[in-house]
Each structure stands twice: as C-alpha cells, then as structure tokens.
Design a protein that fits this description.
Elements (H helix, E strand, L loop, with lengths): L1 H6 L1 H25 L28 H6 L12 H20 L6 H25 L4 H17 L10 H34 L6 H44 L3 H7 L12 H36 L7
Length: 310
C-alpha cells in the first residue's frame, strides 16, 4: 500500500490532504481548549449551547460547508477559523508530500516537518485569538526539536554512526535553539529600552527557539528578518490609513481598539509564516545566502583584509 502511494505522487497528495484535514480538526480542538486549560479528550465535541455534536456534523471541511457555518442544533454561527485550519493543514500536508517526494529520507523528513507545521498552525491561531503562545508549543516544541534531532541525525545531514552522530545532530539543533531565542531576546531588550515598554513577548522568544531547534540557526535568522518584513508589508499600510483617519480626538478614541500606531499586534503569526516559507521551499535560497555571509566574515577574520578587490 505504501509503495503504491509513493509511486503515485498525486494520489499521495490527495490522501495527505484528507489526512491533513482530519489532523486540522484535532488542531482546532487544541486551539480552542488549550488556552482555556481544558482537557483535549473530555468532554466530547459540543456546541456552545451545550448540545453534543453528532459525528455527521463533525466531519472536517464538509460539515462546515453543509451547515453553511451554522450549528444544526441552535443555529449559532460557527467560526470560519474551523474551516480555515482544516483546509490550511490539508494543503500543507499535501504540498509537503510533493516537496519532499524526491528526498532520500522521504518519510522521516515528511513526518518531522508535518509535526513542526502542526505546532506552528496552533501557535498562529492561538496568538491571533488570545495574544499568547502556550509553553507547550514554544518550549515544548523546542525540546521536541532537539530530541528528534538526537534520534534522527539524517535530518541534519549527519552521517556519523552511533552515538557521535546523535550528539552532533542534537548539538546543531540546540545551537539553533540558542541562537534563535538569544538574538530575538536581545532585540526585545533593545526595543524595550527605546520604546519604554515591552517590544517582544517572551512567548515569541521561546517560539523562535522552537524554530531554531527544527530549522537550525540559519532558519531562525531567516524567520527574524522574514517575519519582520512580512509584518511591515502587511501592517504599515493599515497603520498609515488608521492614523490618517484619526483626524480629531473623537476619532482617535474610536480607533484605539483598532489596528494602528501604538496598538499591540501578535508577532507570532509572522514568525510562523516565515518559518513555513523556509521549511517548505526557501531553505535552499536562505542557506546559500547565509553561507555566503559566513564565508565573507571568515575570510575577513582570517586574512584581515577584504576579499573583494576592484
């Protein structure tokens, strides 16, 4: 069965999309219940009115579309987030199956990256809704990243046999964790000194440690700059429009709760977007870029002179 799937990439992609929507349904449970510190197992899925949800109304994607976003028992609106998470998870699963299809360790890379993607999806929607990043995803994800690297050195391109290979790959993941979280921490400290208020939350710092544990120090650096760039591209025009609309004091009071200058926005989703871009396609470009930068610094340090002459 597995050989048949691997021999047909399109069939694999379809199967992983369906499986991804099922996983996305579970991620929705995590997104809803973990911030409320509720069990992920009990009680069973139920509507806000208290009625249990039958299995036929709990099918990923299909149930939301059939019900047109309304609960069958009471007619309450069902958040579109449930549909978005299931479709997004399915699409990432399907895309990853194509992206890693020619890799020597296909199943290993696929499983590790999909696990990492599930962490990032939960972080994104929890941060958007609650402005928090639970430790079980950030700190717990970082620990899992290091342990996975220790167990499977092939993920880091380590070819040494035995314990040496496990230690080397685990050390690389740990180094990525420390570089990612350390740099973002000091950026936050400097921002706090300039702005006189918290610039970067500790949840973002721990999240970047998780990214570094899975993606390495190059991936962590890419996420810092890539996340900042994505945030600037998206938020700056909105903030400018909001500021220009605030022409008098009453308007300013009206816009204080909206997106604009001085309003706190979650940085986690932008870090997550950059991490997914890196992990699912831009890693080669980013690694080559940082490799060139590293080469230049090493050359200047060793030779004490510029390596480029005119």
């Amino acid at each position: 069965m597995l050989e048949t799937l691997l021999a047909n990439p399109w069939l694999t992609g379809i199967c992983l999309f369906v499986f991804g929507t099922i996983v996305g349904s579970f991620l929705n449970v995590c997104i809803h219940r973990i911030p409320l510190q509720q069990s992920l197992i009990l009680p069973a899925s139920r509507c806000e009115c208290g009625e249990n949800i039958p299995w036929r109304f709990n099918l990923p994607v299909l149930s939301w579309l059939m019900l047109r976003g309304r609960a069958a028992c009471c007619g309450r609106s069902i958040s579109v987030r449930y549909l978005l998470v299931e479709i997004l998870t399915g699409m990432i699963f399907a895309y990853a199956s194509f992206h890693f299809s020619n890799h020597e360790f296909y199943l290993l890379f696929l499983g590790s990256n999909l696990f990492f993607a599930c962490i990032l999806i939960c972080v994104t929607f929890i941060d958007l809704e609650h402005m928090i990043i639970p430790n079980r995803f950030s700190f717990g994800g970082a620990v899992c990243g290091v342990l996975i690297a220790c167990a499977f050195p092939e993920l880091w391109g380590v070819t040494d046999d035995g314990l040496i290979g496990n230690v080397r790959s685990g050390s690389q993941a740990l180094f990525g964790l420390l570089v990612g979280s350390g740099i973002l921490y000091w950026i936050g400290v400097m921002g706090e000194s300039l702005l006189r208020k918290e610039a970067i939350g500790q949840g973002d710092v721990k999240l970047l440690g998780c990214v570094g544990a899975f993606c390495g120090w190059k991936g962590a650096l890419f996420c810092i700059f890539g996340g900042a760039l994505l945030g600037t591209i998206l938020l700056l025009p909105i903030a400018l429009v909001s500021f220009l609309k605030s022409t008098d004091s009453s308007d300013k009071e009206q816009h204080t709760s909206k997106l604009g200058w001085g309003v706190e926005v979650p940085f986690g989703p932008f870090l997550v977007s950059a991490a997914l871009l890196y992990q699912l396609g831009l890693d080669t470009f980013a690694d080559d870029f940082f490799q060139q930068i590293s080469y230049i610094f090493r050359s200047v340090w060793n030779e004490g002179a510029p390596i480029v002459s005119f």
